[in-house]
Amino acid sequence: MPAPIRLRELIRTIRTARTQAEEREMIQKECAAIRSSFREEDNTYRCRNVAKLLYMHMLGYPAHFGQLECLKLIASQKFTDKRIGYLGAMLLLDERQDVHLLMTNCIKNDLNHSTQYVQGVALCTLGCMGSAEMCRDLAGEVEKLLKTSNSYLRKKAALCAVHVIRKVPELMEMFLPATKNLLNEKNHGVLHTSVVLLTEMCERSPDMLAHFRKLVPQLVRILKNLIMSGYSPEHDVSGISDPFLQVRILRLLRILGKGDDDSSEAMNDILAQVATNTETSKNVGNAILYETVLTIMDIKSESGLRVLAINILGRFLLNNDKNIRYVALTSLLKTVQTDHNAVQRHRSTIVDCLKDLDVSIKRRAMELSFALVNGNNVRGMMKELLHFLDMCDPEFKADCASGIFLAAEKYAPSKRWHIDTIMKVLTTAGSYVRDDSVPNLIQLITNSVEMHSYTVQRLYKAVLDDISQQPLVQVASWCMGEYGDLLVSGQCEEEEPIHVTEDEVLDVLEGVLVSNLSSPITRGYALTAIMKLSTRFSSVNRIKRVVSIYGSSIDVELQQRAVEYNALFKKYDHMRSALLERMPIMEKTTTNGPTEILHTNGEAEPSVRDSKHPPNIPQPSSQANDLLDLLGGNDVVPVIQTELPTKPASSGGELLDLLGDLSLSGRMDVKCICFSPFLAIPPMTAYNKNGLKIDFTFERSNSNPNVSVITIHASNLTEVDMADFVFQAAVPKTFQLQLLSPSSNVVPGLNKGTVTQVIKVLNPQKQQLRMRIKLTYTHKGSSVQDLAEVNNFPTQSWQ
């Protein structure tokens, strides 16, 4: 049989192929020749054939039929055969295939071989694809090589030990004696792999972490020698001595210093030296500085050192490299809550990043800008963010508008400024705001009694200019219906009043009704506004005509409203003025929990957090039935989910029965129940997973001591909001449980706010409280659902 072609010739031949089909034909022809050679047990060219097979495997063609040939090469006495055999094993085999177990004995023999290069390829293979069984069998040989004086083998053995620990963590203690002298090695390769091994052991075992904390002075000394050492061509990268080893040591110091005062104190000086002495003109220096910043922020470092770290990130923001700017913004966003004032110094640079062309940098800059807003800078920051809202791409507008709404509500210096700001958002990006913005703004306007004339005049002007922004038109229609008489009378004191007639106001609302741009919801707002004006304007006949026209509308909702309003004119005209009178001030219901400390970006002050009821919180239709089996049996009472507090509850029904002898009438008014907090019960954490944290605070009803009131506080530690949040709970049959409406169905990211919800539990027999909770939400575009059991309630909460 003729000798097979060489690998180099095969590569040259394949590269001459002009089409994919031609290449496949060449590969198939060569694979057939290789199979024939394998069947004939041709030992002479087995190494060459396996090498060609590996090349074809790299091109994406099947090469599994060469697995056993790799094992034969490994068993060969030639180093060239072993090298190709081990390479083939790493590429063609993995721990899911039983074939790999056949090579365990060969690897063991090669680990004890007299040639270091044979030992080296065996260590590489074990560290690459060794299974848990192989690691258990060969850990002793790896540990022996870790103690050898040969630096070439020690560095490979250290990396192999990392793989062994990942596969079989209980073998970690076997390598502990060998690690004692690793950091005394002067070879940088051994030092690097030793630090990797120590890092892996510290991350996997708290005991190892405590044990290795005594090595902090030695690590500090190694790092100092690297910084102070002169030029070394063997380790120099862009003028910096072995930056890879420096980065690894900084990561290990970060793990060792986290939560430990003594270790943090020992490394403060060296971190300051690295931060001040590292050259920043090259990317290598920036990488070391970034790791230094992360280490400073994670350990218990001095305040001056933390300020230095934030100033380094501020310098990163001025770098021309987009990746460095993005990394700086992300790091500042993580530290803004703990070192707010230091980050504030770089506010102008952060705001400038809003003008960057890179969308990732713009998003991070926007999130960080909102995190920097406080009562002192709210006017200036809102001006910049409103400008950004006007100029940014559509994908940013929804998040930016929501952020402006939250910041304005939290830090508004005056009600007029608050209203002006929200109106600017509606006129700039009205089509992108979330659904709850309309009722929230209506509530704000209603509660600002002295601003009614100014607001309705501003909204009237805005609608004259543009009726394409549906939320703006909805708010304007509502205000013109409520305060149309103030608009016509021209009583505005805040700005120059305009002269508007009743017919002009009705013309605008009728224009909204007939406009193709108006949504069905907007038309409903407009029709209701026209109906309300029948008690404020004298043009009642014109209003009757408009209302009667829509009695035959194809829109069922609009038709129903028109028919009901016509009936009001014809049958109940004596009640019309009372039914259509102005809306009273909408009071915000506060949570029943104790006073909380609100995070106000550097201006923390105690206040009672308001709980706003969203207009429509989606609940699963079979919510009670879904929870019947949460506690695994038939002794479970289902959840009773109440509606908003203003909705009447059926007298004599489940709601009245739930709270025992509480004196409730046909309308359930939650605000009339008085609660007193438990004085000696601290809050408890019921759930903490995937960035979602659920805390419970406890109260008891003064009216009925058997009723315990639990307020949940849901917070989100991730960077992305959790939408469609639904909290459900179930208790054993001996209890009765009631869930009130949550404050929101969106849990803001980065712990910027909490969603609160009140649970009332009737426990007449004073039994120990047990609860199963079910959490449903949408995070990063995917739906998440989880169950948890809460059994560690404080004794005072149920006795």
TrEMBL record:
InterPro entries for this protein: Adaptor_Complx_Large_Subunit, AP1_complex_gsu, ARM-like, ARM-type_fold, Clathrin/coatomer_adapt-like_N, Clathrin_a/b/g-adaptin_app_Ig, Clathrin_app_Ig-like_sf, GAE_dom
Membrane topology: Peripheral membrane protein
UniProt-annotated stretches for the region Disordered: 591-622
SMART domains: Alpha_adaptinC2 (SM00809)
Primary location: membrane
Domain GAE: 679-794
Record Pfam families: Adaptin_N, Alpha_adaptinC2
Entry keyword set: Cytoplasmic vesicle, Golgi apparatus, Membrane, Protein transport, Transport
A GO cellular component entry from the record: AP-1 adaptor complex
Subcellular location field: Cytoplasmic vesicle membrane; Endomembrane system; Golgi apparatus
BP term (GO), one: intracellular protein transport
Recorded family membership: Belongs to the adaptor complexes large subunit family.
Protein name stated in the entry: AP-1 complex subunit gamma
